[in-house]
Design brief:
Blueprint (H helix, E strand, L loop, with lengths): L6 E2 L8 H5 L4 H4 L1 E2 L14 E6 L14 H9 L11 E7 L5 H17 L3 E5 L5 H12 L3 E6 L17 H7 L5 E9 L6 H9 L3 E4 H6 L4 H6 L3 E5 L21 H13 L5 E5 L10 H18 L13 E8 L2 E10 L5 E4 L3 H7 L5 E4 L1 H8 L5 H10 L1
Parallel strand pairs: 2-4, 3-4, 3-5, 5-10, 6-7, 6-9, 7-8, 9-10
Antiparallel strand pairs: 1-4, 11-12, 12-13, 13-14
Length: 391
């Protein structure tokens, strides 16, 4: 597949020659698609940055299409970490004649990259582009978990056109459907009506209030570790730290918490695409939000380079296996602890057929607290929710 036809190269104006001449910055340590260098080959990269110049379906945030190059101004100036992963910046997917053309280009690009085990890092643009990201998995016929960091659920009204606040409804309504689970991190109750909360519960989706996660940010790690696709709305960060958003709010995650969540997500061997949306330079103050997003992407690179390849698989010796008796299940609840990282997973009972169909979903990331809960004769909520889905 020739995906280069969708991209415009990076302008030479974004390069800072003075800084490039001193200690090496990121702009000198990654492959960048320019007119002179040409488009990178798949075998040259493990991680691919993709800008998407699209905001025609944004709500109250027109101008966010200009975000990708603003982020690059700061990203290129950062010092790289001690990374072994190969990073390429593919440039910007140009805006199509219709918005559907842009969606098609992004879907085709992600389909190609995911099939080649390259992690796409998408810089939007408006968050409706998450729908185009999802469509790539549909093309690949891959059942996925999706984690969205967002102050609301973006359900909107199903009869409305697809936009940045209705994309989740469109994903849920797709037939056939390849969404196994949706997790919202950081919703704020005053932005969510009761029918939406009831629907999330009915669909057995996971929703976590902002206050619960900020009280102990480590709770976000198993949530994003379970995701194949992560979509981050910059409006989930408080306005003091990220003013560059037309829907910015006084409350939200702090900038350092957003960076930590980005790192947690990229550390997961399961993550195969991540996108950052709704940054609007016209609302920004002194480039604060663009600089923050550049640092969040830096932490994506850092997290990817810290992957330990410890997802439970064929190497049984790499895990300590604990079976906790359960009153309702004669087989008990099986927990797996990685000898390499001390991270925890649970095996959910689902039978051999469902184990084959949902091979990446019946083993659920969890915490030591879930193990303690089971030891106290209580069913962990994570285990029970997945069990209901599989049954």
């Amino acid at each position: 597949m020739e995906i280069s036809i969708y991209f415009d190269p990076i302008s030479e104006e974004l390069f800072n020659e003075h800084e490039a001449a001193s200690h090496p910055r990121i702009q000198r340590s990654i492959i960048i698609h320019t007119l002179n260098s040409g488009f990178p080959e798949a075998q040259e990269m493990d991680v691919a940055i993709i800008g998407v110049i699209e905001d025609r379906a944004s709500i109250n945030n027109q101008g966010c299409a200009n975000a990708p190059d603003e982020v690059r101004k700061y990203l290129y100036k950062l010092f790289p970490g001690s990374w072994n992963c190969r990073i390429a910046d593919l440039g910007n997917i140009r805006q199509g004649f219709t918005i559907e053309d842009t969606y098609f280009a992004l879907t085709s690009t992600l389909e190609y990259l995911i099939a080649n085990r390259i992690l796409p890092v998408v810089i939007g643009g408006s968050q409706d582009l998450t729908f185009a990201m999802y469509k790539a998995y549909e093309k690949l016929e891959q059942i996925i978990n999706m984690a969205v960091i967002d102050p609301m659920f973006d359900l909107g009204e199903t009869q409305k056109e697809l936009n940045s606040q209705t994309f989740l409804s469109r994903i849920i309504m797709q037939k056939p459907n390849f969404l196994f689970n949706y997790t919202n991190l950081g919703f704020q109750t005053y932005f969510v009506d009761q029918p939406a909360l009831d629907l999330m519960k009915k669909l057995l989706f996971d929703t976590y209030r902002l206050g619960m996660l900020t009280a102990d940010l480590k709770e976000t790690e198993p949530l994003v570790r379970n995701a194949d696709l992560v979509s981050f709305d910059m409006g989930a960060i408080r306005a003091a730290d990220a003013p560059g958003n037309g829907n910015a709010s006084p409350n939200g995650f702090t900038g350092d918490q957003a960076c930590q969540i980005a790192r947690y997500a990229a550390m997961s061997d399961k993550l195969s695409s991540i996108g950052f949306f709704e940054l609007n330079p016209s609302f920004d103050r002194g480039g604060t939000t663009a600089h923050l997003l550049a640092q969040m992407i830096w932490y994506v690179f850092e997290g990817y380079n810290s992957r330990k390849k410890d997802f439970p698989g064929l190497d049984k010796d790499a895990f300590i296996r604990y079976t906790v008796p359960a009153a309702d299940f004669s087989e008990g609840i099986v927990f797996l602890k990685s000898r390499k990282t001390d991270r925890w997973w649970m095996e959910v009972i689902c039978g051999p057929d469902n184990q084959k169909k949902y091979s990446n979903h019946f083993i659920v990331p969890c915490t030591y607290h879930d193990y303690e809960t089971a030891c106290n004769n209580e069913m962990p909520d994570r285990w029970w929710q997945v069990y209901q889905k599989l049954m």
